[in-house]
Amino acid sequence: MFHSLLEERLQRAVQAVRPDAAVGQVQVRPATDPKFGDYQCDALMSLARECRMNPRQLATDVVARLEIADLCSPVEIAGPGFLNFRILPSALATVLQSALHGEHLFFLPARAPRTVVIDFSSPNVAKAMHIGHIRSTALGDSLARTLRLLGHRVITDNHIGDWGTQFGLLLVGWKTLLDPVALERDPIPELERIYKAVSARSKEDPATLEQARAELVRLQAGDPENLGIWQEMIRLSRVQFDSMYTRLGVEFDQTLGESFYNPWMRGVVDALVTQGVARESAGAYAVFSDHTVPPKDDPFLIQRDGEWQDNPVLVQKSDGAFNYATTDLATLDYRLRTWSPAEIVYVTDGRQQLHFRQVFAAFRRWQPEAAARVKLVHVWFGSILGENGKPIQTRSGQSDKLADVLDEAEERALQVVREKRPDLAPAEQSEIARVVGLGAVKYQDLLPNRQSDYVFSWDKMLALQGNTAPYLQYQYTRAAKVVRDGGFSPGPDSTVAPTERSEVALARHLVNFGAVLVTVGAEYRPNYLCNYLFELAGFFSSFYEACPVLKSEGPLRDSRLALCELTARVLKQGLNCLGIEVTERM
Ligand code: ARG
């Protein structure tokens, strides 16, 4: 909370001193070291450089104009122009109070809301969603939730893979091998079966491959029979995807699959060629380096045997078919024309890094002006590993289907709930197990730095101690229970006055909720929020151990109950940003 309040006042002061300055870059962050106070700002130095001013002088002038006596003790200018802020206990109490009265939850709506398109999940048609899909889905969903909460306009788009050469094989399979009874019973495994069978056959039998090619050509030419089958495969797949999204609590504003962009593909390639961005090469069309950036930063060059060689991206194959990159260029163009976003975020695994660097670079050359108005970000992530340290897809015996993994998570959670809470009715036990099981899988995924690989571990993710969802969900139930048992509901004159060390520590951490949300949205890293919530739970535990709540009396009791109430609210809202639910009992 204070980061926004201080930032607002500081920006006003900067504006007064330098009306021409770009004040947006003047940001306040929680101090990295408590030695320097509670909050810090180090933006004045670069601003001074831009204005050709002495940084200390600028800092002194700004501080002279700064009206923050109600929030902080006198500001300290350190070194060449760092500002350090120390929050007054009275200001801390005021902010806690206004939060208690529902005026905010330690964050303010963004002053400059941005339109952000988030492209995530994006599974392929005719295949079951596997455990790997939890990554893109959980990450993308939590970024969408966080940015939305901060007041940004978010458009989520599921860019499903519903077009491409695999449909040639699938069509042959559908026409020659399909078992309608199996399809009726459980469509995706049947589609996977026919695909595998035809794919294997085509490797030995050139006639099958030829057949597949012919079916694909017919589909592309709009043959009604093939179009009908293709649409049915998409429909069946979307039923499966949708049931998974409902279960995970994930919603999309748009599901514009790759095929949606077919009408524009020809035009994209023509435009790229006309503008000299793409050129012909052995009957195909591709984008090559324009040698405007150093080779090491050029996605169209690659170093082989100590030499820089061409590493073009194909936009049309020699048989006339378009590529994955062509679709992404058409998609990018469509999104900019349709929603004018300030930012487009693509959440996929790290193996697509080169693809997105090439697509972004090609787009900048194709539409430099439009590209200058948008920030394009590839938010990539590493792999999920089995206990053997190998990517989990290869682990033997156990299913890696997402549905099976979620089932198992709920079953394992149910065993624990039955053991710990035999007193609860079976329906409540199952509901707790559902919330805990799904939360555990998502949290395990969101907690590590997204770019590192992590080991999938049932024991670790379901542990009630440690940095896990069940631990946070349990701390939530504890805080909420104290509030209930205390019969607490904040009235107009409830006050919060933290005085004990552990109360102050908890309060100071609570007010930083908003700063963490902003960082998650700016750096696309929900793991910051995970760690913030884990620390919050720790501060809450220490407070709860050190300070009697229900046994204290009068205003002290109310103030402590208010801290419990605010902790519960922040834990619940924070977990919600991660796509994780809570229950009132565990
Ligand atoms: N369907 C793709 C895959 O499974 C992911 C698509 C990501 N989004 C995009 N605009 N390329 O790898």
Describe this structure in words.
The protein is an alpha/beta fold. 54% of the residues lie in helices and 11% in strands. The chain is built from 22 helices and 15 strands. It has helices spanning 2-17, 44-51, 55-65, 89-100, 133-149, 166-176, 180-185, 187-204, 206-220, 224-248, 262-274, 324-339, 353-366, 368-372, 402-420, 426-446, 458-462, 469-485, 501-510, 513-523, 527-546, 554-577; strands at residues 29-30, 39-41, 72-78, 82-87, 115-119, 153-157, 278-281, 284-287, 301-304, 307-310, 313-316, 343-349, 375-381, 384-385, 454-455. The strands form 5 sheets. The chain has a 4-stranded antiparallel beta sheet with strand order 1-2-4-3. Strands 6-5-12-13 form a 4-stranded parallel beta sheet, sandwiched between helices. The protein has a 3-stranded antiparallel beta sheet with strand order 7-8-11. Bound molecules: arginine.
Sum up the structure in keywords.
four-stranded antiparallel β-sheet; 586 residues; 22 helices; 54% helix; binds arginine; four-stranded parallel β-sheet; alpha/beta
Q: What are the distinct ligands in this entry?
A: arginine
Radius of gyration using CA atoms only: 28 Å
Number of distinct beta strands: 15
Helix content: 40-55%
Number of helices: 22
Mean pLDDT: 94
> Low-confidence stretches at least 5 residues in length (pLDDT < 50)?
none
- The structural class is alpha/beta
* Percent of sequence in beta strands: 5-15%
Strand order of the largest sheet: 1-2-4-3
Distance between the termini: 31 Å
Largest sheet entry = 4 strands, antiparallel
Instruction: Indicate the overall shape.
Output: flat
